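Newbie here. two chains, one complex. Structure please?
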Amino acid sequence: NAGVMQNPRHLVRRRGQEARLRCSPMKGHSHVYWYRQLPEEGLKFMVYLQKENIIDESGMPKERFSAEFPKEGPSILRIQQVVRGDSAAYFCASSRLDRSSYNSPLHFGNGTRLTVT
Amino acid sequence: KQEVTQIPAALSVPEGENLVLNCSFTDSAIYNLQWFRQDPGKGLTSLLLIQSSQREQTSGRLNASLDKSSGRSTLYIAASQPGDSATYLCAVGTGSNYKLTFGKGTLLTVNP
């Protein structure tokens, strides 16, 4: 039973390029969450998605960042025109959807480490 | 605004010792509290989840307690082993079970 899969593990981009981070949730999970861990800081919530819907994007920067979770395929976190301050570890988590989902812990992937040069 | 603090920031103990990691939070109106471990370069592994109505949870050598009124949680690790070496993160769900506020973690080193 595969866990949350994220790719790539490491991504290097030059300033101004686009970064696309992918996340496949655990089997049977239909909720996806993105978190960011900046150097020397704790993880911070970015966005919560269900299939084809953004439920809560209150943690997303207003510009250059977008996220989607299409009907088919992985969730994508997209960062346009990257800057050095975007360098961080980006973690995806998933949880299941059922009557007791509010009791479900979040299961995290191994993260994508983005370095902007 | 919820703030989560973990003390100590780093801890080094000899193998076999029992130890306690501390977590405090400023807003007691929490949904749940979750303890994770993070290995270098890896993701987070969920250890224990305590709902707001619960006082503690146990899994193997781990026991986590929750005192909402005082805004504290502790993670107790019995008979520590070198394989327990990792960063331990405390995360609090405020207003939802998914919008977690994380502490900066306690880096634990268990020496053989």
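Moderator note: The radius of gyration of chain B is 13 Å. Residues 23 and 73 of chain B are 5 Å apart (CA to CA). Thread marked as resolved.
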